[in-house]
Amino acid sequence: MTSKNIDIETTDGPCDSYISWPAGRGPFPAVLFYMDGIGIRPLLHKMADRLAAKGYYVLLPNMFYRRGPAAPVDVAEVLELENRASLMDLVHSLTPERVVRDAGVFLEFLTAQKEVRSDSAVGLTGYCMGGGMVLRTAAHYPERVSSGASFHGGGLATGAPDSPHRLVHRIAAQIYVGHGDQDQSMPPEDIARLDEAMQNAGIRYQTELYTGALHGFAMADLPAYNARACDQHWDRLLALYRRTLKAP
To answer: Residue range 160-187: average pLDDT?
Structure first.
């Protein structure tokens, strides 16, 4: 594979990003990878590389770029109680408007790369806060997104007027949502609300409840990591992309 760090210019400044793609002959279908709230770190690079090894050109942007380039992350320190307020401040700095605006820039970037297939819409994947970004991106750019997956996404279907579930009627992509059955960021009533919204919208979707899984189950560097659930998430994600992106 080939991988490197790059800056993508946005209206709010440069977004430091990581790209990874196969060593073989392209072009390749593209994947936009939305990080979790912990931020960019070696684990996410490895996950992007794993996708690239399956035949995809993967873009992993630092969604916190407005606060500066990604710095080394001490996961244990970030999760300490006294640092929780600063973490949530970062997460909440990503307003829906900013997410949608950034998504347009990232999709344009992917379209412009010679290694990316011009005849294929983009696949999305997102974790934690990235799950909502997947739904927003698919809803605002329906003609450019073929599929999207959310894993332990939080706040996907709340009572807020800007909740992501209120946009699903605009989605044309196939959607997969993997919930942890012990994830407090998506209680049963919110899961039911999201399912109802997608069913009423008539979109192609699948939701799945991962048994014994906490918020963050797919992240091997988090205390919530669940190896069985993580393996299941890879199975579901790659199956979705095989159906919709058709890697060489």
So the answer is: 98
